[in-house]
Structures are given as C-alpha cells and as structure tokens.
Amino acid sequence: MRPFNGRRVLLGVTGGIASYKTVSLARSLAQAGAVVDVVMTRSAREFVGGVTFEALTGRPVHVDLVAEGHALDHLTLSRQNELVVVAPATADFIARAASGRADDLLAACLLATPAPVLVVPAMNDRMWAHPQTIANVAHLRMLGYTVLDPGIGPLASPDEGAGPGRMREPDEILAEAARLLEVPGPLAGKVVVVTAGPTREPIDPVRYISNRSSGKMGVAIARAARRRGATVTLIAGPLAVDVPDGVAVVHVERTSEMAAAVRAALGHADVLVTAAAPADFRPRSVAATKLKKANDTGPIETEPTEDILVTTRDARPAGCFMVGFALETDDMLANAAAKLKAKDLDMIVANDAREPGAGFGGDTNHVTILEAGKSAEVLPVMTKDAVADAILDRVEERWRGTAGGR
Fold first, then answer.
1. CA-based end-to-end distance of the chain
2. How far apart are CA 279 and CA 291, in angstroms?
3. pLDDT tens-digit map of 198-220
4. Cα–Cα distances in Å, from 74 out to 51, 65, 231, 338?
5. Is 211 a catalytic residue?
6. What's the pLDDT band for 158 if we cut at 50, 70, 90?
7. Which end of the chain is less crowded, N or C, counting CB atoms within 10 A of the terminal residue's CB?
8. Which is catalytic among the residues 5, 81, 124, 211?
9. Helical H runs in 130-204?
10. What was the pLDDT predicted at 406?
11. What tens digit of pLDDT does each residue of 337-361 get?
12. Exposure pattern of 59-92 as b/e (b: 16+ CB <10 Å)?
C-alpha cells in the first residue's frame, strides 16, 4: 500500500497501557508492505511482550542500548529507517526526548536519526495539560518533530478522560505516517479542492431528489491529496464515509450550495477535482408541508440544476488544474470527451455506472482517464484509494512538466 511498500519504519513503543493499540499499528504497517523495526523501552515490556511484535513484523525487537554484539544498534537503526514513529509516547519519554537524553535505545535513536519523527502521546489528561508537558511538546515541534495531539475518550482510570490524553487510533497514526513518507512532492503546499458525494433537492420537508453516490471516491482523493502534503478543502454533500483527518470540510445539501462553495474555494486553488455527483434536476417548487399519498398532487415538475463546472468557470484562477468526472450508462468515451472539451478541463475520469465494481457505493472503481491531446488510458479495476493515487499521479506528472499552479 502506498507509500509504505518497501519503506523502512522504526516503531518506538514506550511504557503505557495504550501500547495495546501499537500492536494493531505494527500489523497495519507490515500488511501495507513496510519493513518495521520495533524498539521497546524496558517499561513497555511490562504492558506487551516483544514476541507479539516479532510475530507481526517478522523481525527481531530491539530493547537494550548496549546489547551483546550490538553496541551500535542506535546508529544502524537510525541510518536504515526512513521514518520514526513513537506510539505511545508517555509524558516521561516526551520529557526525556525534549531534553535530548540518550539513556535508552529509543531516545538514542531519536538523537541519531535524520528521518522524520512522529510522536503520538498517550497519558492522563491532567498530565497532558501540565505546563511542563506543554513546554516539552512545543520544544519537540520546534525541533521539527511532528506531534499528533491526543484525542478525548476513555483512559486507563474510570475518573479520567475529561480532556485530551487518549492515544489516537491506529488508522489515524497510519495516515499521518503515510503523509510524512510522501512529503515533499509536487503537491506539497498546493491547495486542492475536492467535491464529493451527492446533493439533495427537496420535494417537501421530508423527501428529496438525489442519487446513490456514497462520496467514497471524492473522500479517497481528498485523503490522498492530504497525504501528499496538499492543503485540502472537501466540499461534501451527505456522505456515507468519514471525512479524513486534516482535511477542511464544507458541508452542503443542494447543488446550488455546492456551486457557491466551489466558487468561494476556487480563488486560491491549484487543483479542483469534481468527484461529486450533484443532482441534475430539482423540483420547480418545494411543498411547504409533507405531500400526502391520499392527495392526488399530480406530477412533480422539475428544472435543471446548476452545472457547477460551467457556472464557476469565471472563478477559476490561472493555472488551476481542472479534473472532472463522467459517470455514464451509454457512449461513455464519447460523452466524457465531449465534457472534457465543453467544460474546458485538463482531465476527465470516466466510468460506467452499470459495470460491476465501477459504480456508486462500492470500494472499487474501473475508470478511463482522458486528457486533451492524449489517448484514453484505461485503468484496471482498483480500490478507490488506488484510483485516487492514479489520478493524482497524473496531476503531478503535468506539474513536473509545466509551470502549472502557483
């Protein structure tokens, strides 16, 4: 899984009850293809055994700063690994790291490594709020470490948890680790705007016109762009999936609201990806009360909604890379090519709504990418995360070859 496949990660584990989550993190890293070296403090072994990590990573666990025949482990590990993740990072370890201590193997590795360092705190909420911890965390950030603020939730003691202190979940840590391995790249520092999900056009207070879009494709693109270092705004209709961490979200309901949000976000955008499936029609009038089945109201008259790409064309900044989507049931390539030209896009991603594994709601997609002046590129059936990376790879290729963006 990008970007972990074949990459070397040093996973540091300190002595906190949250280390049970680190077991899952180690497994996820290994399953994603990373080569994982686990370094445990002595107190960490009071909570989880080293054999557990060895079984999950297929590699020996390191504990001692000066072990027999391995006196320079801290230098070897620090040179080999491309990322250091410390999870959990206790208040004591954060204090030692902030003061530059090298009194155990993990602390020595931090001093010796040139790789990015991700620190994932876990502690009592009062300890996290203590001025000394606040100062220590600020110093780590000043040194260039990335510190992932803890969340709010159940802690070890039942009377704790009113404030932050809970270690972030393994998938959140994995996402941040991926970002640190991906950056810097062509999208780092760029502004990417993504639309996702359906829109809903009300018929009455309880009914609406919509479609089966889940928002999974747009959310996958937003997640991948954020991982590559972009500043991401997600303009989302009602979603069936969670919004990724680190992504600003603008929630909308109607197509007109999505068009207004796109116009507002476009001014500073380097890339716009319109992966949403806005409703094409809306009722000409919205009933003030619920329409009753017993009452013959007759047909519901509709009118077209705004074409977002057309109505916001005048708001596009110079050099903004425009990516559209075309979900079709007939003449997919011809219709997609027509949209590419008519809407003045740099790229359009086409798929067939009737093809298994390629339509709304699923976890996979089967797309064809069209760019002006190029032959259509048919991708195999892939997960939507993989499709998102394929799309952004092509955006970055254009960036490397031109002066696009700002």
1. 30
2. 21
3. 999 999 999 999 999 999 999 99
4. 20, 7, 35, 59
5. yes
6. low
7. C
8. 211
9. 131-142, 170-182
10. 40
11. 999 999 999 999 999 988 888 878 8
12. eebbbebeeeeeeebbeebbeebbbbbbbbbbbe
Residues present in the chain in total: 406
Instruction: Give every CB contact of residue 187 below 8 A, 6+ residues apart in sequence.
Output: 225, 228, 229, 230, 271, 392, 395, 396, 399
Query: Which residues of the chain are in CATH 3.40.50.1950 domains?
Result: 8-182
DSSP string, 259-326: HHHHHHHHTT-SEEEE--B--SEEESS--SSPPPTTS---PPPEEE---HHHHTGGGPPTT-EEEEEE
| Residue whose entry in the numeric block shows the structure tokens 């932050």 | 164
Phi, psi of 179 (to 5 degrees): -60, -40
Q: What is the pTM of this model?
A: 0.86
Confidence bin at 72 (pLDDT 50/70/90): low
- The CATH number for 191-401, chosen from 3.40.50.80, 3.40.50.10300, 3.40.1130.10, 3.40.50.800, is 3.40.50.10300
CA distance 141 to 116: 12
CA distance 142 to 294: 68
- Contact yes or no for 133/127 (Cβ under 8 A): yes
Q: How many CB atoms lie within 10 A of CB 125?
A: 19
Q: Per-residue DSSP letters for 90-138?
A: -HHHHHHHHTT--SSHHHHHHHH--S-EEEEE---HHHHHSHHHHHHHH
Sole residue written with tokens 């909604």? 305
User: How far is Cα 107 from Cα 65, in angstroms, rounded to an integer?
Assistant: 9
DSSP 166: B
Confirm if 227 and 178 have CB atoms less than 8 A apart: yes
Mean pLDDT across the stretch 250-256? Answer: 97
Predicted pLDDT of residue 10: 97
For the chain, how big is the Rg over CA atoms in Å? Answer: 25
Q: Which residues have CB under 8 Å from 268's CB, separation 6+?
A: 191, 317
What is the C-alpha separation between 167 and 325, in angstroms, rounded? 38
Which residues, at least 6 apart from 150, have a Cβ–Cβ distance to it below 8 Å?
120, 121, 122, 123, 128, 164, 165, 166, 167, 168
Which residue in this structure is represented by tokens 């499936």? 277
Write out the residue limits of the CATH 3.40.50.10300 domain(s) in the chain.
191-401
Q: Say which CATH topology domain 8-182 has.
A: Rossmann fold (3.40.50)
